[in-house]
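Subject: complex prediction, re-run

Hi both,

The earlier run crashed halfway through, so I resubmitted it with identical inputs.
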Amino acid sequence: MEKRRRHDGSFFLAMLPLYVTTLVFVLLPVLYVVALSFMKRDATWGVTSEFTLENYIRLWDPIYLKVLLDSLKIAVKTTLLALAIGYPFAYCMAKLPPRKRGIVMVLVIVPFWTNALVRIYGWMILLRANGVVNTLLLEIGIVDVPLKLLYTDGAVLLGMVYSLLPFMILPSYTSIEKMDWSLVEAARDLGAGKMRAFLTVTLRLTLPGILSGCVLVFVPSMGLFFISDLLGGGKEVLMGNLIQNQILTARNWPFGAALSVVMMLMTLLFLFVYRKSTKQSQPEGMA
Amino acid sequence: MGDVILQLDGIAKRFDETDALRGISLDVERGEFITFLGPSGCGKTTMLRIISGLEHPDRGRVILQGQDVTDTEPNQRNVHTVFQNYALFPHMNVAANIGYSLKLQGVKKQEIRERVEAMLELVQLPGFAKRTPQKLSGGQRQRVAIARALIDNPDLLLLDEPLGALDLQLRRQMQTELKRLQKRLGITFLYITHDQEEAMNMSDRIVVMNEGTFEQIGTPAEIYERPATSFAAQFIGTANIFHGRVEQLQGDAAQILTDEQMILAERAEGLAPQEPVTVAVRGEKIRLHRQPQPGFTLAGVVREHHYSGGILRMIIGVPGSGGEQEVVASHQGMESAFQVGDAVYLDWEPAAGILVDRKGARRNGEKA
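This time it finished cleanly. Structure:
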């Protein structure tokens, strides 16, 4: 552990831009949202500075609880699916010879160069009733009637996993790439089969990467509203959609703010669990 | 032939364009401490990995306890390795590391704990069970790695330069301890090193390796006293190598004409006049004189001498056709009777001139 540096004047001065930036762009907006959530809605479009808890009480309405639960469900599904695809992908990537590894890495990163919204529109073209996938299936004769692919829960999940997969692959890859493979050999040498060696050594040692990946996928998947809008047809309302809706359409800023606060708290809780689990994952004692 | 625990039969392995092993064969007896000695890149580690199953040979068989295990996985062989970098699991404490193989075998927790405790006693680390590998010194990690590999009584213990990362003093101490441990447990040790002193101190037998082949197999004394090849002679101890032709055979001596002078060598079996030979002479077998002696003496000039711990080494320049050849003579003592620049005459007993690299002589373990 590094000792904390003494905060003398020059140090403070040097760090000032950081403090200012954090204050202006992070702390103040968050505080503003929190403050908003305790205010009352104005008759027109603004807010009145009157303290109230009604926004939070309103959250307990079963309609909103269902939205919360649905969002959690899809976030969990997205995370698990991204893990199931992303980890093996990262594992294989780390095992490739360096040159090929570089190429695959570029392929993983390339989608970031295009706007996320555009890429989701791409999926719409693929999935709609007379889209590429259905045309192909009809041509081959696998189906007689176009399948309903777009505007389904599956399409939303697909879009989510597709958009967030790199965030699972990259941290997983980083930790797998750092693996000392002689440890796996040691495990094999001491009598572990391939699977046992993977579970007791590789998986345990790459857990930090897996957990970072899960955080990076889980957290944004709670708030990505445009995917459920475009690929789900807005049928399923998620937290992200609800907040967008309250703030932009219903013009109920205080309630939108309250929803945001709840989401932030959930994210914080998740991060807290993550921190806890990575700390514990250090030395494994034998009982 | 005693109780053979491991047989290597014509093992060959290629990596890309290089031959790591060129068809080596060896029988190892139960309870032996056998050392593989050779420069880096001679194929020692590849051989060990083939025995443990981490690598598979292109040709040849590995026979363990009479069973052909060539195509089996590492976990199907009762052979454990102490890796060069120890390869301790960083996410487990010392006890979990040592007990790993027992846990895999489904041994009860209570029993694992007891056996781990016993192993910690054995390697002199009592009370270290709960520490993490990161908090141990190099020597302590070494002991944990050894304990981990020994806990379930393997048929063979493979050690890949286990003392390489330790400082000299600790290395000497660990050599003694390892040897003692091996004697006590009676487990067969296959030990890799490039340190000849280590090999000499610990081994029942030494296998001298070079470029994927076995140069010589023998006890430390055999290899030192009767090196089979010039490589073995020079890799273990210091040896002076002379190339020449047999001039005359007389009694139990052979007179060898090098390009300028005549020297003496042993009269080996089947030696014929005019046969080209290579002679190896240990530095400490060389006698130095002020005057030419009756018989044959090699004339030279003292170029350097240095003292190193009880031994005085003299470097003597001997004229040859391709310029001066350096001959190293070493003697007990501190002070030299000779000054740099003095003329000096060298001779030795015929038996001290060992004929090496002879055609038709057995080069152990080599097969066509």
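Residues 361-368 of chain B have pLDDT under 50 and may be disordered.

- K.
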